[in-house]
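Newbie here. two chains, one complex. Structure please?
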Amino acid sequence: MNTIDLLLTDPLYRLFVRVISVQFVALITVLAAVVFIRLRRIRQRRERLAANRSIAPVLVRYLSDEIPLSEVIKTLRPLPKDEAAELLEAYASSIASRLQEELVALYRGLGLIEFAVRRSRSIIWWRRLEAVRILGMLEGKVEPQILFDRLRDPVPAVRLAAARGLGRSGDPRAVDPLLASLATPAGISRPQIAAILVDLGSSAHPRLRALLRKPPQTRAEARLYATILEVLALSGDTRSAPYIQYALTDQDHEIRIAAFRAAGILRLTLAPDDIIMGLEDDRWEVRAQAARTAGRVGLKEMVSHLATRLSDTSWWVRLNAASALRDLGESGLSELSKLATESNDPFARDMAQRILTEDPHTGSNYLLGRGATMLSPAITAPVGAPEPLPRSGIENFWEEDEGATTIVPVQMPHGGFDELPPLPPLAIEQPYVAFDELPPLAISDGGNEALAPEILPPLSF
Amino acid sequence: MDRIIYIIDWTFLFFFVGLNTSYFILLGLSLAEIFLRARRRISADLDGSLRSYHTHPVSIIAPAFNERLTIEGSVRALLALRYPEFEVVVVNDGSTDRTVQVMIEAFDMYEVHPIYQAIIPTRPVVAIYKSYKEPKLTLIDKVNGGKADALNCGINTARFPLFCSIDADTLISPDALLRLALPFIDDPARTIATGGTVRVANGCTIRNGQVESIGMPEKAVPAFQVVEYLRAFLFGRVGWNLLGGTLIISGAFGLFSRDAVLKVQGYRHDTVGEDMELVVRLHRQMREDHVPYRIVFVWDSTCYTEVPESLEQLGRQRDRWHRGLIDSIWRHRTMFFNPRYGVVGMVIFPFFAIFEMLGPVVELIGLVTVAISYVLGVVDTSFMLLFLTVSLIFGVLLSVATLALEEISFSVYPNWRDLLRMTMFGIIENFGYRQLTLYWRLRGMVNYFRGVQAWGAMSRRGFGAS
């Protein structure tokens, strides 16, 4: 039987022929797909480039009141709505806060708001995402309820975009839903919520401070409490100082860490006893943060206490204490130099030497002064058993906040919250919905950040 | 005799069908993942993450051994990364060239007090340097101990909760680290490691340590590797990632939780595949401790690396990779088809063991038996030709499908000429190049059983010459 006969009659050979035919068809299809995708991408790039070129000058002239809205609409109308929205986003993000009304008019004129409302109900998640991004760009001034609703979207990207939109809105009513979104399983993570709450700005401070009035009862509440302390400090809210100072001695270590950190960010004038208590805390994380804060707030009377911490069992406490001594200036540096050469504790000596030599400003002077003879190879040896390693919450130690420079001393009423001055009433100029009109939040137990509903007490001003 | 040949033929056929079916399933998974994620990639709010004061700080650890040509450019690129807070720790692993001097001169470095906490035991540290110009930069000069030892030394020195291991000749795209860190931001409690895509830097224009424009290499050897890397990363790892079992995070670019890695005592010194071994060990430890965890492959986080330009160097590299693979699988053989290790033990580990580790042997036996069968007249010429045609077209189809994935996801090669060349190399690699890699892997297997531990040096041209 020759090959042709075999190919036509033998089942195995016929199978081979079929497989090869399918392979060829698949190969040609894939090749065609590659070319098609490439061509489509080139066309999209060209269109985008052309639109980009034409839209910028038109937008600038519209926003400078040189041309009417209709001119811009005429330029953008031919573009598909999703592309127009994406194109506008690049420009809108930089001007949204200043020219909100003009932007809303433009989005409305282009039909993008109706488009977003429609897409927000889509079963395809990236369409809902587009919708939320459009509305978020308008800072929640239009259809804010959609942003609130999408905080409970099953897709994390949509939830996050909604939260960011609400964050840009500066609307204090967003605080509670944002915090509640921490509580849902697979909700938005604590760091993200914290960043968004910082974005909300000063309008959220009264509500956040109000939430600090209720002492936390559970671990989840404590974590939330700690987040709020940090958020207030990062937003430069000096009125949160009494709460921060009160929290320095809280039972929960995470709150104490957050309180020391917040005090450092705001550079509060703390009583030496408060810092000493932090430096002698049972938890090494608190000691480390207290040491760092002592350096930040510039408590010169802490030099001897910080020097003692250079013999701490935790490497992080030693590092922060030595860094704080450096930050305290001449007296701290002098103590560091003393420790670097005279301390009987090799751990204290090593850390002092490290900090002194690592710093470009003090390092070369120190080395010159010592004739660089102290670099002993012996200290490269292992330093004993591993120490406790950084755990959750440790991220608090590494964050720098170059922008926070407000220094406003606030006296702490040690008598507790009852002695706090009354908070001013919350001024909401154009409320869209009252708090109790918001849909009930589905807070489930057992989420990553399980949070009891009572953590959100009713607003009372 | 006929009976034996018959059995081998059928085994070979099953292996062939199984392997290609697995590849096509992976391809389908990758297509789905990339198609969906391509939108998410656009939507990823990198600027928001960049501003987020809770983005975890990262210590970037770059082990360097005789990297004087590339070290300055690589470090400059690292220092230019878009990331809120990071430090760069270059670990000179006893280089015999001027690596340390180049670093000192380029970054105005000065020696500091060498306090060093050896949480993971390593070879001694000779000196530690800081830079007057770049406060984020640290250089550790240590006695030679291998890449794993250098990485462990970097982990000991790292200050931050995440560390990024890279090769000193790796060029990271400016936002790649941020993308790699996103899973840690999204799910900080469970994520313990993430890995990114590695691409070929040969043929690209590099300026100031940054990839300025991307192009296909002119030489054939690196051009073949462009297609290979695309295939390995864009459909291999993307597909496994979707199944939840990333088993390899390239040593050239990976981000790890320092705690998790310290818990398993860092990288192993006595293996040449330390990157894969670490990831397998992390999987094993987490599963044994019943700790929920995620090891994620982030395909849109990209770095570039210089690949060998000569067959000799490439052969040595592949030999070493295969030895590393065998070693990792052999050390953790208890995971093989073990339900205790979930999808990793039941699907992914067996795939790597059967198809990747034993693949070269089965392929060799198959080819030899087909040849013997042909000589003995058990199979005829037409059958053999048909079979070879089917297997070759499968190979071509996979390569071309990878190009489609590349077009959907990145489309980083803008020229039609580059696309044409990629397609061409994707086709012709099946006629000689793949057989060569088969030989190198077999050699790696033999060397493994002979106890060879050598890495094989690779000479660098340096990015300045690109």
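Moderator note: Chain A has 22 helices and no strands. Residues 9-148 of chain A form one domain. Thread marked as resolved.
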